[in-house]
Specification:
By secondary structure, the protein is α/β, with parallel strands linked by helices. The chain has two domains: 219 residues, Enolpyruvate transferase domain (UDP-n-acetylglucosamine1-carboxyvinyl-transferase, Chain, Alpha-beta prism), CATH 3.65.10; 213 residues, Alpha-beta prism (UDP-n-acetylglucosamine1-carboxyvinyl-transferase, Chain), CATH 3.65.10. It has twelve helices and 25 strands. A four-stranded mixed sheet has the order 2-17-19-18. Strands 5-6-4-16 form a four-stranded mixed sheet, covered by helices on one side. Helix 11 links the parallel strand 24 and strand 25. Helix 1 runs parallel beside helix 6, helix 4 runs parallel beside helix 5 and helix 7 packs parallel to helix 9. The chain is globular. 51% of the residues are buried. The structure holds shikimate-3-phosphate. Shikimate-3-phosphate (S3P) binds next to helix 5.
Amino acid sequence: MYKIRPIDKIRGEIYPPPDKSISHRTVLLSAISKGDTEIANFLRSNDTLATLDCIKRLGVEVKYLGTNKLLVKGCGKYLPIQGKVELNAQESGTTIRIISGLLVGQKFSSTIYAEKSLRNRPMKRVTQPLRMMGANIYGENREGKEELPPILIEPTDKLKSIHYSMPVGSAQVKSAIILAALFAKGKTKIREFIASRDHTERLLKLFRANIEEKKGYILCSESQLITPGKIFIPGDFSSAAFFIVLGTISSDSQILIKDVGINSTRIGLIRILKKMGANIKILRRKNYFEPHADILVKSSNLKGITIDAKYIPTMIDEMPIIFVCAAFAKGETTIFGLKELKVKETDRINSMVYNLKKAGVDIKANPFDDDWMVKIKGRGKDIFNLKSLEFRSFSDHRTTMSMIIFSLATGNTHYIDDIDCINKSFPEFIYIVDSLRKK
Ligand code: S3P
């Protein structure tokens, strides 16, 4: 049981960890590019280390030049493996889905295994479009309809382009198709109804791939990547999000969060929080292949709002912490389009409903229009009168960090059963929280 002591009157300046999504992608693209890539500010967390381990098993040489600095020796398009290779994505959904797109174009067979929660996460969303491209890729069919890890891939020299309209807004699926397109004949055309994070597209431009966006489509064709030499990865907005919310809902507080990625496909939380009445300023914006900036946040009283389904992909990982904001707000918050939360590391609708109900929050989740919606009646100032509670992590990093932020701001001591899962994305989370306590 981990004890969460409250904090108030926060005055602090923090650096969030490096971006997880960009860290995965940078090492994967560096591995199949020509030349060596020096990667500064690489995230060392369980998920990104799983990707790093995979590329090492694929024969790619990697050296640490410092704690978060890597040198990846690019092998060119075709990786130096003969016969078969066995990889393990551990619990990282981004690793297993994105690397699948890279492996279907290779000249060897591969099996990608998974651990714990990832063993039950849906893979057909990736294997199906890749099979349409001619790939020999199959997940295991334990439940009949869905395909689950492990994923088996056999080589083919018949990869072809497709025109694909994304049925789910998923950057992992989109990225797998784009990577496969680098090995396929013809021009692959992808249409997204709601834009998901575009880090793969931005990085591929930096690696000089044949990729462009035109009239709402992503167009990508056969390419040999060339390294840009050096890449700096900005701070992770999804990790910064916990402190943006902490600064907002804690009384009499102000936090400056430095060097955070502010890619517009990621910062839905800022738009939503501003609508709820938050005081957030973006300062010192820098334009690189990914824009980044400092974010200044001050305490505010939030009000409930309605959030349309079309905003969800730009804040998919922030939904648990947005539930926390809604619990602190005055009035009702209704959120549509949440079904993807059900297939994350845990069912995040379920985990957050369980924990917030425990805290006396009136929260209801219901199926709606082939999707899911959640209604939360905020407790407003009344939330500061909670007795001490025990929350459950559900072994999910974002549920755990969200409930810790919730606890810190309520002004009482609470507990949570496990915090190990935080290492999936944000190993320094507790350290940073403690750095905000008054000495
Ligand atoms: C990610 C995409 C999102 C997100 C995940 C990271 C990525 O998943 O939830 O944490 O790096 O591409 P989906 O593609 O399933 O939406």
